[in-house]
């Protein structure tokens, strides 16, 4: 992983965790030494410019909720756990696919300079 990508990924993770109060946005479990959080990409990284590494495309999830959210991605968008559809996740963090796309495009333009 390039140094630039490591920095972008780190900024993405921290901004998502900070916005979500360092707790799972779905079940509320706080981050601790026993419970790690993941910064989940709501829309897959490969489907947005600059890898979708923008807070508008992220949500803090505990391992259990992350597994539920990943069902959508791993099933090629054919199955999802109730309440964990990408639209549900976007609503939970006050975002949308359109906001994520626009923020990703802006990040992509900044990186191209």
Q: What is the topological layout?
A:
Blueprint lengths: L2 H17 L18 E4 L16 E4 L1 H12 L11 H7 L4 H16 L1
Antiparallel strand pairs: 1-2
SSE pattern: HEEHHH
Tell me the domain tally: 1
Broad structural category: mainly alpha
Unreliable stretches: none
Spatial order of strands in the largest sheet:
1-2
Radius of gyration: 14 Å
Percentage of β-strand residues: 5-15%
Could you tell me the mean pLDDT?
Answer: 94
What composes the largest sheet?
2 strands, antiparallel
Q: What is the terminal separation in angstroms?
A: 20 Å
Describe this structure in words.
The protein has helices at 3-19, 63-74, 86-92, 97-112, and strands spanning 38-41, 58-61. The chain has 113 residues and is mostly helical. The chain has one domain (3-112). Strands 1-2 form a two-stranded antiparallel sheet. The chain is globular, with a radius of gyration of 14 Å. The two termini are 20 Å apart.
